[in-house]
Design brief:
The chain is α+β, with helices and mostly antiparallel strands. 16% of the residues lie in helices and 13% in strands.
Length: 174
């Protein structure tokens, strides 16, 4: 298993902050194999945003004022001095999820299509059926405040390993 795709012992999102979408898939396959089923996966973009919003309709789950971002996210650090931080040290969203904004971008299952949501189903869109790049959500420790709005998304190649990308698993019930 790729060592990058696990929680670091210091509580950081990953050992070195460089996890590709492919690495995440490998980790999930091994975890599902060990657990004896297919209970774990990456969330779709729609699932990620639903959990991140936590029932809110504002730019951030805590409101529209980016001045409050520091209470909820690690952000604004430069490449020379920055890095991921231990998880759970900032305020959670209304549903108790930590590190939705900042710290590390999070891979989701979907292909990237900049026009998909203009014509997608309004309820439970499943994402484009194909594409050339994958989606990350949530911003990171070094991005600007505009990268943390709940709706913000960006694309990367599935084998890209940036310095601030990780993932959050979804476990299906049953």
């Amino acid at each position: 298993m790729n060592a990058r795709a696990r929680l670091h012992t210091s509580g950081h999102p990953s050992t070195d902050g460089t996890v590709s979408w492919n690495d995440a898939q490998e980790f999930i396959a091994r975890l599902n194999g060990r657990e004896g089923g297919n209970r774990y996966r990456l969330p779709t973009e729609a699932e990620w945003e639903y959990a991140a919003r936590a029932g809110t309709t504002t730019a951030y789950s805590f409101g529209d004022d980016e001045a409050d971002l520091g209470l909820h996210a690690w952000h604004g650090e430069d490449f020379a001095t920055g890095g991921t931080h231990p998880v759970g040290r900032k305020a959670p969203n209304p549903w108790g999820l930590h590190d939705i904004y900042g710290n590390a971008w999070e891979w989701v299952q979907d292909w990237f299509d900049p026009a998909y949501y203009a014509s997608s189903p309004a309820v439970d869109p499943s994402g484009p059926r194909q594409g050339t790049k994958r989606v990350v959500r949530g911003g990171s420790w070094h991005a600007t405040a505009t990268s943390w709005r709940t709706a913000f998304r960006r694309d990367y190649d599935s084998d890209y390993r940036g310095i601030s990308i990780g993932f959050r698993l979804l476990r299906t019930a049953g």
